[in-house]
Amino acid sequence: MLKILRCASYHFRSAGWSHITASLSTTSKYQSAATERRYIPRRAVLYVPGNDERKLQKIPSLAADCIVLDCEDGVALSMKEAARSKIRRVLHTQEIDFSGKDCSVRFNSVESGLCEGDMLEVLSAQHLPATVHLPKVDSPEHLTWFADRLKTTLATRTLEEKLRLVIFAESAESLLQLPEICRRGAELSQDSPFLLDAIVFGSDDFCADIGATRTNEARELLFARQYVVTVAKAFKLQAVDIVYIDYKDLEGLRKQSEEGAGMGFTGKQVIHPGQVPVVQTAFSPPPQKVEWAAALVEAFEQHQQEGKGAFTFRGHMIDMPLLLQARNILQLAAVTKK
Amino acid sequence: MLKILRCASYHFRSAGWSHITASLSTTSKYQSAATERRYIPRRAVLYVPGNDERKLQKIPSLAADCIVLDCEDGVALSMKEAARSKIRRVLHTQEIDFSGKDCSVRFNSVESGLCEGDMLEVLSAQHLPATVHLPKVDSPEHLTWFADRLKTTLATRTLEEKLRLVIFAESAESLLQLPEICRRGAELSQDSPFLLDAIVFGSDDFCADIGATRTNEARELLFARQYVVTVAKAFKLQAVDIVYIDYKDLEGLRKQSEEGAGMGFTGKQVIHPGQVPVVQTAFSPPPQKVEWAAALVEAFEQHQQEGKGAFTFRGHMIDMPLLLQARNILQLAAVTKK
Amino acid sequence: MLKILRCASYHFRSAGWSHITASLSTTSKYQSAATERRYIPRRAVLYVPGNDERKLQKIPSLAADCIVLDCEDGVALSMKEAARSKIRRVLHTQEIDFSGKDCSVRFNSVESGLCEGDMLEVLSAQHLPATVHLPKVDSPEHLTWFADRLKTTLATRTLEEKLRLVIFAESAESLLQLPEICRRGAELSQDSPFLLDAIVFGSDDFCADIGATRTNEARELLFARQYVVTVAKAFKLQAVDIVYIDYKDLEGLRKQSEEGAGMGFTGKQVIHPGQVPVVQTAFSPPPQKVEWAAALVEAFEQHQQEGKGAFTFRGHMIDMPLLLQARNILQLAAVTKK
Q1: At what angle do helices B115-122 and B80-93 cross, to 10 degrees?
Q2: Is C310 a residue whose pLDDT tops 90?
Q3: Closest-CA residue in chain C for A212?
Q4: Average confidence score pLDDT of chain C
Q5: Which of A5, A16, C109, C150 is the least crowded, having the fewest Cβ atoms under 10 Å away?
Q6: How many whole angstroms separate alpha carbon C133 and alpha carbon C40?
């Protein structure tokens, strides 16, 4: 009945905290993943060098939504083998408690020549990570290469759920090609062991690539950040914002986190456990939004029982995207509340 | 003679208040409308819900350049029929005085499933609106669909002048596809009952779509606003800026209006009649620009009489675009002066 | 040996002062210039009207990296012939000392109808300029036309080195088409007498085209400036920033220059010799960067002698782009030091 508000070629559209429904769209032009997918919150994304035993053991005490076991920038070249092997062990033995967290692994980039080795070792563990991160995706061809190797690597395994794929935009070229990269990612998601789920804006490498100098206010990155959000949301993906480098300055972090949330980012990279609470608060739905969502879902269920169709709620016509959005605010609120 | 400054594949280029000549370009690559078109000022764009009799009757007292009889967001779902029918009556009987204003109608979006019904009813009136607004244009296909239906709807009628078409960019997807949407719009303008004339940036729906939070300073929209202007001007279209929501804060409205005019927007959406004077002032050519234009046109006519060709005026070489621009500043000044 | 960090389809990537290595990339997807090219600094780009004898004679006393003998906007229509002929003479006789400066010529735009005449006259001089500037490049076709005419014009000559080509983006259309323009420029560079080397953002014409009003803070140009840098760097080109019009306000100039350098621009247009020192300082590598580069190059040579491969330096893995970058910081420091 609600369908009357949208025609056949319906595109996802929503209001307010729409980003938390980012991965739920069912008939977007770009993303044809046919079924509703579980929303994995990634408000704070924290990297743990795969070879750092001490930091690995601390994972259960970390509050970040998303823990990234890192093979890439956090690991020196001479430690690459050690990192792969430790990450494999952690996954294989499930010795570390990831409950309530997105357990993910960052491979080295396609162009590093190390990515295939990372995959072969890490993905031979008995248990797979929920999410894999692929840095420095500069062209759609990188994703094609990755999908191909991933398929081969996982050929003999049965997946309960597809791996979620998080890609990094961190060069001028990747920014220019981002819509094409996402289009390819969405196509490959249909027939690969992964579902493209998020874009991380890697601002340090990006600044290095374009010769920019990072400032705390980040005016030099305004276009790039807002463009990344726009592309991500056009493809119903999460968007993860830049690192705030001065990790002792929690007030500056709070400001930048709220600014990023206000721009439409769904989360932020952190480089220190001390940054997690500030960031997760900034990227959580505010209480009044949760109340709105609960009331809307209740009103909808009442209308359904009475056999009514489309209806208005607090002055807005309610269509399916708004309903999905409300449900997901509740889901995120439930998932993320302490 | 002035032609010497431009070769055959000449593109429109101008200076200063060029935006008011936006629709005059004759040989742009993108827009091949072959004849000079009347410039319809839309400094303040005010929506009037089509079903609100009281507000309809107030139209003659409104000072806004552009009055939009609304079928869409201003009208509850249960009132859609009433709005269509009242708008049809207003157009049919010409009972309301629109003199000096752009009389226009906003249909529901293509994807709403309501657009065709809106067209059939509204455009069956004896008199047609000068302009139609199409919201939520997310892809070139929307315009193709619209052109097709409009042609059918108006098949038996003879138009004195083509309908002007104003489209809304209000989602991440529409922003990414905006150049393609405008290209299609320009193509369709050649052979359809409409001429694409303006882009409105619908920031509330856009913010909802990308999960951004509106602020008065609107830093979160810098990229989107400046991109919309750039695309609009590349296609010689007017560009209509965001709503300033806090309608009691006229000083904040003035700042944002002047900022928008400074970015190249040609007008702004308003949500309250009290916003109109501030907005129309901000989007009017300043007196010194009018003086410049008058002097330039006079100098040109003198040169023409003396049989001279290209010439310089106050230190700048004068080419055809500058002349057109000057003429249109005078036209806008004449049209819009109290 | 360092190759292990990159696979075959390796793209250039670097850190910090990467922009000074802009033209060194050897295997970028976009730019297939197969050999390392000399870096020509263009920190301050100063135009000298080709017909202004007095200003021409002052060139040896100017400190700007890049002197542009102008046929275009700085020259009135009635003086075009005089400018061409004087510029030809200056090049032919080498009567003016350009030592340590990029000696370049700005032609009129393709669409002006004057460009071919400029080329025929100017490029008939015995000595050619190192660089040519082509303004108002609005489409890839402009570059194709230019390459074609340039080939014809230089058909009988043997070039020691290809001419460097600097193009101007100065309209809404050129901004939208900039990636395509650069792609065409890179393709044509393979088989033409020019190498595309830099993009200048011509903000005055751009503002005129989109109807924007220039301010000193230039917030109205944030998107356009950052987009130009992004495209330029994706194609490994230099990016030259806007003019600061208030030439007496050196403090404002300093701020805008540092902001531009911070965004990734490699240089800035100047309109007065008094602006040169401020600008060149802002676009020079800071001493700590020069120290870093010297130490890195030394460490690399040591590793090479010891037969070691990839290595880390001050906490970062060193790959070929970083090494090239370091070498070019040293080269720029050497070239530009007083």
Answers
A1: 30
A2: no
A3: C264
A4: 86
A5: A16
A6: 14
Residue C198: burial class (beta carbons within 10 Å; 0-12, 13-18, 19+): buried
- Rounded Cα distance between C82 and A275, Å, is 65
Closest CA to B195 of B159, B141, B247, B219: B159
In the three-class reduction of DSSP (H, G, I as helix; E, B as strand; rest coil), residue C72 is classed as coil
- Count other C-beta atoms under 10 Å from residue C71's C-beta: 30
Can you tell me the distance from the alpha carbon of A249 to that of A253, in angstroms, rounded to the nearest whole number? 6
- What DSSP assignment string belongs to A152-180? HHTTT---SSPEEEEEEE-SHHHHHHHHH
Distance from CA of B205 to the nearest CA of A (A): 7
Task: Kindly state whether A4 is in contact with chain B, defined as any CB-CB distance less than 8 angstroms.
Answer: yes
Pick the closest to residue C122 from C104, C135, C148 (CA basis): C104
Angle, vertex CA B214, rays to CA B209 and CA B216, nearest 5:
155
State pLDDT tens for residues A78-101. 899 999 999 999 999 999 999 889
**What are the angstrom distances between the C-alpha of A244 and each of A174, A248, A252, A272, B223?**
21, 10, 8, 10, 21
Scanning B264-303 for CB atoms below 8 A from C yields: 264-266
The 10s digit of each residue's pLDDT in A258-288 is 999 999 999 999 999 999 999 999 999 888 8
Strand ranges inside A50-181, DSSP E: 66-70, 102-106, 131-134, 163-169
Closest to C275 (Cα-Cα) out of C247, C236, C294: C247
Q: By C-alpha distance, which of C134, C129, C119 is closest to C59?
A: C129
The model carries a pTM of 0.89
Task: Give Cα separations from B94 to B88, B89, B169, B263 (angstroms).
Answer: 10, 8, 31, 37
CA distances from A312 to A182, B52, B85, B160, C71 (A): 35, 18, 21, 40, 65
Asked if the C-beta of A9 comes within 8 angstroms of chain B's C-beta atoms, the answer is yes
- As a whole number of angstroms, the distance between CA B256 and CA B35 comes to 34
Residues near C298 by beta carbon (within 8 Å), at least 6 away in sequence: none
So what's the pLDDT on residue C30? 32
Crossing angle of helices B250-263/B222-234, nearest 10°? 50
Residue A134, pLDDT > 70, answer yes
For B251, phi then psi, to 5°, come to -70, -45
Q: What residue type is C301 in one-letter code?
A: E
Task: Please tell me the least confidently modeled range out of A35-39, C140-144, C217-221.
Answer: A35-39
State yes or no: is B197 an active-site residue: no
> With contacts defined as CB-CB under 8 Å, which chain C residues touch A211?
16-20, 22, 229, 233, 264-266
Long-range contacts of range B157-162, CB-CB < 8 Å, 24 or more positions apart? B157/B128, B159/B128, B159/B193, B161/B38, B161/B130, B162/B189, B162/B192, B162/B193, B162/B194, B162/B195
Residues 6 or more apart in contact with residue C104 via CB below 8 angstroms: C66, C67, C68, C69, C129, C130, C131, C132, C133, C164, C166
Is there a contact between A336 and A280 (Cβ–Cβ < 8 Å)? yes
DSSP B107: P
DSSP symbol at B134: E
**A230: nearest CB among B110, B112, B210:** B210
